[in-house]
Design a protein that fits this description.
single chain, alpha/beta, Rossmann fold, 4-stranded parallel β-sheet, 16 helices, 15% strand, binds zinc ion, cytoplasm, nucleotide-binding, cysteine-tRNA ligase activity, EC 6.1.1.16, Rossmann-like_a/b/a_fold
């Protein structure tokens, strides 16, 4: 039974989907005003891994994640470049796909844009006003936080604490327009400085940030969704306000499980990443230098709620692990060629045991660290099998498939090798084998080095020498 930590109750709970066999997930996506930073990638990878685990265990996952494409940051960045908001946001939507595809982050089932849903947003806000949960004030529309029962419950904040904070955070003009400092904007009236506006019953303006997620989550996934996810910094105010708006509108529970991923720190001093600290690292830049599979594995193997320290050492460790896992897979794959066509009961049993260990770990709130131990033990089984005097091809084939399926949950792809032939390389390998047979190790090493400089890696296995390109 899968158990997930629900931020709402601060407890691990049994996971029960609303509809048997289906998981409806909504994950807050990035504001598309720049290349995504490593914190955005962490969130995307954390929830992609969770999605992949559901799919591994047979669920169909409807995964909705938005792009915020109207927001003060976009308006500011577009102005600085002298281009339209649309032009700027379209550029970084495209960049998002280019940067996340190499990390094996699956595309969302639906990737809605806030600006494509302005009419839906207006209808939603009209309903909140009609129900008395929201009010118009000088062209803005605000949500009456105090009217919503349990406001702040998700982030364990009391309205009185929030009131003190709210008065410090907002400017005097906005404070004067609100009935209460804790109220928040669902619609912002036009500002003479800002060109991007839409007509509404409250005059020209644009949506507040939080409203888009309430509108798009309920539109694509229904009034109650199974899982709502996002970075832990979103619990307040963003998710707190999403809950108030959605539940005021539908009268139903918005999300059954609230999952929040931890932060990323950059460098060894564990500083929280921020632009002001000068360690704002974009994925766009990282993947020019770091193998995206290594970055993916590094991030996917930290449990989603835990912080990740993005350091050189962590990347190096992930690179070593990735190499070890790939080598285990390739060695057994190569060995199968000379395998027997009978089943190996012991190997079948070992495959089952490691699969169960993997599932048990992931069922415990996606404990990827324990899941990695199961995978590492499984890799040892593959290595031992590859070295055995006799190998069962059918059992080893199943072992490879199960091993690859586990790695796929973590976003790492090891596919069967396409048979590559190169007579000149085969000739050198044959010459090296002959040199080794006559104990001419100097010549054998020379050949290995010669191949290495042309990007060919030579592996000595029980079934003979195999080579592959780096
Ligand atoms: Zn959101």
């Amino acid at each position: 039974m899968l158990r997930v930590f629900n931020t709402m109750t601060r407890e691990k709970e049994d996971f029960h989907p609303i509809t048997e066999g289906i998981v409806n997930m909504y994950v807050c996506g990035p504001t598309v005003y720049n290349y995504i930073h490593i914190g955005n990638a962490r969130s995307a990878i954390a929830f992609d891994t969770i999605r992949r685990y559901f799919e591994y265990t047979g669920y169909k996952v409807n995964y909705v994640s938005n792009f915020t494409d109207v927001d003060d940051k976009i308006i500011k960045a577009a102005k600085a470049e002298g281009i339209s908001e649309k032009e700027l946001s379209t550029r970084f939507e495209k960049a998002f796909h280019e940067d996340t595809a190499p990390l094996n982050i699956k595309d969302a089932t639906v990737r809605p844009l806030a600006t494509d849903h302005i009419q839906d947003i207006i209808e939603f806000v009209k309903d909140l006003v009609a129900k008395g949960f929201a009010y118009e004030s000088a062209g803005d529309v605000y949500f009456r936080a105090r009217k919503f029962p349990n406001y702040g419950h998700l982030a364990h904040q009391s309205l009185d604490d929030l009131e003190t904070g709210a008065s410090d955070r907002i400017d005097d003009g906005e404070l004067a327009r609100k009935e209460d400092p804790v109220d928040f904007a669902v619609w912002k009236g036009a500002d003479p400085e800002i060109a991007i506006t839409w007509d509404s019953p409250w005059g020209p303006g644009r949506p507040g940030w939080h409203i888009e997620c309430s509108v798009m989550a309920t539109k694509y996934l229904g009034n109650t969704i199974d899982i709502h996810g996002g970075g832990q910094d979103l619990a307040f105010p963003h998710h707190t306000n999403e809950i108030a708006q959605s539940e005021a509108h539908t009268g139903q529970t918005f999300a059954n499980y609230w999952l929040h991923n931890g932060f990323v720190t950059v460098g060894d001093d564990n500083e929280k990443m921020s632009k002001s600290l000068g360690n704002f690292v974009t994925v766009h830049d990282i993947i020019k230098e770091v193998d995206p599979q290594v970055l993916r594995l590094m991030m996917a193997t930290t449990q989603y709620r835990r912080p990740i320290a993005y350091t050189h050492t962590a990347l190096q460790d992930a690179e070593n692990i990735l190499k070890r896992l790939e080598t285990a897979y390739r060695n057994l794959e190569f060995r199968i060629k000379s395998g027997m066509e009978v089943n190996d009961v012991e190997l079948d049993q070992a495959v089952e045991t490691h699969k169960m260990a993997f599932i048990e770990a992931m069922d415990d709130d996606f404990n990827v660290a324990n899941a990695m131990s199961a995978i590492a033990d499984f890799a040892t089984v593959l290595n031992v099998t590859a070295e055995a005097t006799q190998v069962s091809a059918p059992s080893a084939q199943v072992a490879l498939q199960e091993f690859a399926a586990m790695l796929k949950v973590l976003g790492v792809e090891v596919a069967p090798t396409e048979v590559e032939s190169d007579a000149s390389i085969d000739e050198l390998i044959a010459e090296r084998d002959a040199a080794k047979a006559t104990k001419n190790y100097q010549r054998a090493d020379e050949i290995r080095e010669q191949l290495r400089t042309s990007g060919i890696v030579v592996e000595d296995t029980a079934a003979g020498t195999r080579w592959h390109r780096e």
